Hints:
Elements: H1 4-23, H2 30-38, E1 59-62, E2 65-67, H3 70-80, E3 87-91, H4 97-103, E4 108-113, H5 116-128, E5 134-138, E6 156-161, H6 170-174, E7 176-187, E8 192-200, E9 203-212
Parallel strand pairs: 3-4, 3-6, 4-5, 6-7
Antiparallel strand pairs: 1-2, 7-8, 8-9
Amino acid sequence: MYGRQSEDKFKAARERMLRYDLRGRDIADPRVLAAMADVPREEFIPPSHRSQAYSDGPLPIGNDQTISQPYIVALMTQELRVNPECEVLEVGTGSGYQTAILSKLAKKVYTIERFSDLAESAKTVLDKLGISNVEFYLGDGSNGWPAGRLPSSGCFDRIIITAGVPEISEPLVGQLADRGLIVAPVGGRTVQRLVACEKKTDKLISRTICDVRFVRLIGEHGFQQ
């Protein structure tokens, strides 16, 4: 961990984040705010950028990947409307920060990452924080969760994609429960629209939230290298 002075600085920065970057904008869900207050973001950031842990912007985590800005993490989580009975699929573990936030709200989180070092680092931090309701898988997130390891219901109540996709892939739509929700950045290689979709009889009803910039999801049903 860190010295008392560093811990106090991180605590004060987290409180500023909650007051100005989250509550000061449109994050009002008390469960989301509680999760964001509870999870120490600094634990998920490389030492070279740890002093910026609570700045409202993305930060590099290696492999040309980033940890999303706190506001976007909170916004996507709020739009996902997770309840304690939800089983959530996260496509793109990355640093594990979004995973940790979801773990505070859901019954269980299933998370996919294609970089083994990021997945291992995220698991190490989550274990350190005592988070145990997360299952990891190393692979192509655009193909969804492996069929033989799906939840007992055979699908997920919520899906979140934390990298830009040209469209929401059929494998992911197929793994979303009816009336389930999916939140994802959809669009081009550099700019996307953050959308929230509800599945109704095998079709997605989509609503645009805002414009965003995410790293690309590389995969069979994502972007090519």
